[in-house]
Design brief:
Helix content is 0%, strand content 48%. By secondary structure, the chain is mostly beta strands. The strands form two sheets. It has a six-stranded mixed sheet with strand order 2-10-9-4-5-6, with no helix packed on it. The N and C termini lie far apart (39 Å).
Amino acid sequence: QVQLVESGGGLVQAGGSLRLSCAASGRTFGSYAMGWFRQAPGKEREFVATISWSGSRLYYADSVKGRFTISRDNARNTVYLQMNNLKPEDTAVYYCKRIGFPTDWGQGTQVTVSS
């Protein structure tokens, strides 16, 4: 099992930016796809973005297209989520996940966007 640790969350005003990081343990980080998900209060966890093992294929939820960018650095065992033009509806706990492994989730990092 891989250990995933998110960081970079915080409080930001609408229109601002944050960069989330997810550091993974293990030697095989570069062998699998990674994703970001989020869960707002009272709502189900939802998909945000995924990136293939090589970084060549990227997928985004419609709600974040054009504002968020997922990337990865396999040498650092880290996946990133650059979030620009943040909106209050982006407020949620953000989780990273190893795709294809149901139990491989990080502990989450809180993102709060004030209006």
